[in-house]
TrEMBL record:
<dbReference type="InterPro" id="IPR002173">
    <property type="entry name" value="Carboh/pur_kinase_PfkB_CS"/>
</dbReference>
<keyword id="KW-0547">Nucleotide-binding</keyword>
<dbReference type="Pfam" id="PF00294">
    <property type="entry name" value="PfkB"/>
</dbReference>
<comment type="similarity">
    <text>Belongs to the carbohydrate kinase PfkB family. Ribokinase subfamily.</text>
</comment>
<keyword id="KW-0119">Carbohydrate metabolism</keyword>
<dbReference type="GO" id="GO:0004747">
    <property type="term" value="F:ribokinase activity"/>
</dbReference>
<comment type="subunit">
    <text>Homodimer.</text>
</comment>
<dbReference type="GO" id="GO:0046872">
    <property type="term" value="F:metal ion binding"/>
</dbReference>
<feature type="binding site">
    <location>
        <position position="281"/>
    </location>
    <ligand>
        <name>K(+)</name>
    </ligand>
</feature>
<keyword id="KW-0808">Transferase</keyword>
<feature type="binding site">
    <location>
        <position position="284"/>
    </location>
    <ligand>
        <name>K(+)</name>
    </ligand>
</feature>
<dbReference type="InterPro" id="IPR011611">
    <property type="entry name" value="PfkB_dom"/>
</dbReference>
<keyword id="KW-0067">ATP-binding</keyword>
<feature type="binding site">
    <location>
        <position position="247"/>
    </location>
    <ligand>
        <name>K(+)</name>
    </ligand>
</feature>
<dbReference type="GO" id="GO:0019303">
    <property type="term" value="P:D-ribose catabolic process"/>
</dbReference>
<comment type="pathway">
    <text>Carbohydrate metabolism; D-ribose degradation; D-ribose 5-phosphate from beta-D-ribopyranose: step 2/2.</text>
</comment>
<dbReference type="InterPro" id="IPR002139">
    <property type="entry name" value="Ribo/fructo_kinase"/>
</dbReference>
Length: 303
């Protein structure tokens, strides 16, 4: 059973710097590389590399970047028949700065990603798609159309509500599994600090639930991952690895989790597998190119 991703496709221009610049400051870049990125594309690549038949719905511009990103996606095993090439907008771009200390800053110019319509989504056949996965770099109206159509077809609706946007919260009632990081949880739950301990995370996550059958998963960086349901909460501890580039680690987690759920793993197994995949992804540069294969994750989990 497959994973259907609705999401963004970006050309990531990644500059490495010693230290991130402050407002008004100019700093020298140590290197500049171009990668396939975008939360939707990254998550689709992660799911496909974990062995799930994966379709991506999105949009690129009718330009050189759009064509080459589609070729790259297909090279990772992602089905791209639902990726439109639009003449009215350029391919999305992300300007990413990564410091030697591993911190990053990202500016995304959405371009064609923002042109996806609910009508396009509603016209798509979703038969056989076990997991429907979306993020917030495409219009909320399109995600709403996907989740409404998906519910009728029995698909599991997974929303990675990143970046944190006010319109994201309106999608929570349509969602079966919500994935957030600590910062996003604090924003949506209107907290004045980022919760860290499982008890505090659970309390904040439950504030966002609107149905008893919802699950909220919170990625907690080095601490690990918390999974919260109405009546239970558990923590899968983070794995100690040396991070080279954390851009796309959250996307790796989401895509790998979707692949695990599509393969009928139970929630804890799927979270453990996705946690291991994300730990492997931070050890390589780039977002999409750092997604590990299923075999690499299995070896890591055995070791
Ligand atoms: O989550 C990382 C991604 O966010 C990058 O690949 C960039 O394109 C932005 O969408």
């Amino acid at each position: 059973m497959g994973v259907f991703v609705l999401g963004s496709i970006n050309l990531d221009a990644v500059a490495r710097v010693d230290d991130l610049p402050r407002p008004g400051e100019t700093v020298a870049g140590l290197s500049l590389e171009l990668f396939l990125g975008g939360k939707g594309a990254n998550q689709a690549v992660a799911a496909a590399r974990m062995g799930a038949p994966t379709r991506l719905m999105g949009a690129v511009g009718k330009d050189d970047s759009g064509a080459s990103l589609k070729v790259k996606l297909a090279g990772y095993g992602v089905q791209v028949a639902d990726v439109a090439e639009l003449s009215g907008a350029p391919t999305g771009q992300a300007h990413v700065w990564v410091s030697n200390g591993g911190e990053n800053m990202i500016v995304v110019t959405g371009g064609a990603n923002m042109m996806i319509t609910p009508q396009q989504v509603a016209a798509t056949a979703l038969e056989g798609q076990r997991v429907l996965l979306a993020q917030l770099e495409t219009p909320a109206s399109a995600i709403e159309a996907l989740f409404k159509a998906g519910a009728a077809k029995g698909g599991l609706r997974v929303l990675n509500a990143a970046p944190a946007l006010p319109q994201g919260a309106a999608l929570f009632p349509l969602t079966d599994i919500l994935i957030l990081n600590q910062t996003e949880l604090a924003t949506y739950a209107r907290l004045d600090h980022e919760p860290a301990k499982l008890e505090e995370v659970s309390k904040a996550a439950r504030k966002l639930m609107s149905r008893p059958d919802q699950t909220i998963i919170v990625t907690l960086g080095k601490t690990g991952v918390a999974a919260v349901r109405r009546d239970e909460a558990f923590l899968v501890e983070g794995r100690k690895v040396k991070a080279v580039d954390t851009v796309g680690a959250g996307d790796c987690f989401c895509g790998a989790l979707a692949a695990g759920l599509a393969a009928n793993l139970d929630l804890r197994e799927a979270v453990e597998q996705a946690n291991a995949a994300a730990a492997l992804s931070v050890q390589k540069p780039g977002a999409a190119p750092s997604m590990p294969s299923k075999r690499e994750v299995e070896v890591f989990l055995e070791g």
